[in-house]
Amino acid sequence: MKMRRFTVLALGSLILSGAAWAHADAAHVKVENAWARASVAGQQASGAFMRLTAQEPLKLVGVQTPAAGVAEVHEMKMEGDVMRMRAIESLDLPKDVAVDLKPGGYHLMLQQLKAPLVKDSQVPVTLIFKDAKGAESRLSLQLPVRMVAPGAPAAGTESKGHGAHGAHMH
User: Fold this and answer.
1) Has residue 170 been placed in a domain?
2) One Pfam family, short name please (predicted)?
3) Strands (E), the chain
């Protein structure tokens, strides 16, 4: 299996423009509004969120970070009247369709945190994709650590359910 590797180093462009495009010889993935939720001492898990738009059909098949012992792609969905969260093997990224990884939906789950994710710091995350032929590519990002999503309402005015995710543990 051929592996393609690329890195987005320009965090400034990610924050300032809100978007970054992958290197031309690898899977084309636009990343917008990427961030990780800050944690506190003793907290073992947190989430990371972003909008992904692929320029070719892809699957997000994994995530890696040195900040956590376990990193997985998760989904949250209602089953009856209970919100369930579970790891998924892959997340389809249809061509030119924005897919949101957000609190209360699909997201990256960082578990067994090695240290707290400190507000205003950065956490390295590598996304792993597979194309229709099974070729793997990787996208390395530096996610800004925040208390709430960029552009989210101030604390205490969040919509029900979105503020509690960072405290969820398995």
Assistant:
1) no
2) PCuAC
3) 3-7, 19-21, 29-37, 45-54, 58-64, 68-79, 82-87, 91-93, 98-101, 107-113, 122-131, 136-146
